[in-house]
Amino acid sequence: MIDWSDVPGRLARLAAHPGTTFGADAHRWRLEPPLTPAELAALEAQVRVELPAAYRAFLLQAGRGGAGPGYGLFPPRLTGGGWQWPGDDGAELTDVTILAEPFPHEKAFTPAPWLPESPDEADYPTDEEFSAAEERYEELCQAAEPEYHPGLLYLCHQGCAYREALVVSGPARGQMWADDTAGDGPIRPLLDGDGNRIDFAQWYRRWLDGLTA
């Protein structure tokens, strides 16, 4: 099993000298308590998929969420409706009922690439007309591309509706992907400096090492 035992201590040292790290005001360098093995078993039974090894180990050893890239990791929590990954600006894009269905993509893709460009406020004489154009565009986007992607677990947001997610099933299982659709970009695999795809452990430690190097 991957060893995450060093993470709480490193975060504690960062908390003592917080600086101005992006997103730290949200997570404050704190991790929520780890899942127990029984909780993890119940979560995986509900979503009908075994989570990728690096992320499973993190949940058991380090914490279920909190301090991490961007504004921090969305934590799995048991709610009245079962296990969910609650949070803001992206957590709602995880549909736990389809996590076991294969994420079909292996390469970066742009949802509904035939769509026109999003409305530009400068092209509309009144705020009401611009708002109406935005609403029509949003309806077109929703009709063209499903809001939820099977097998994709959103873990954090970077602000301005940019999100990052873990593929938990399908050919790209275990890889971290970025959702740049807020800026009309693609949904794409995250890469290291050599152009290789990265998993959860590489993604998290790249963030942590960049802060403590």
Kindly state the number of beta strands.
6
Shape: globular
Total helical segments: 6
Largest sheet strand order: 3-4-5-6
| Helix and strand run | HHHHEEHEEEEH
Indicate the radius of gyration in whole angstroms.
Answer: 18 Å
Sequence stretches where pLDDT stays below 50 over 5 or more residues: none
**Biggest β-sheet: count, sense, barrel?**
4 strands, antiparallel
C-alpha termini separation: 25 Å
- Helical residue percent? 25-40%
Structural class, by secondary structure, is alpha+beta
Output mean pLDDT. 90
Which percent range describes the beta-strand content? 5-15%
- Structurally, the number of domains stands at 1
Pfam families: SMI1_KNR4
Protein name: Knr4/Smi1-like domain-containing protein
Domain Knr4/Smi1-like: 34-206
InterPro entries: Knr4/Smi1-like_dom (IPR018958), Knr4/Smi1-like_sf (IPR037883)
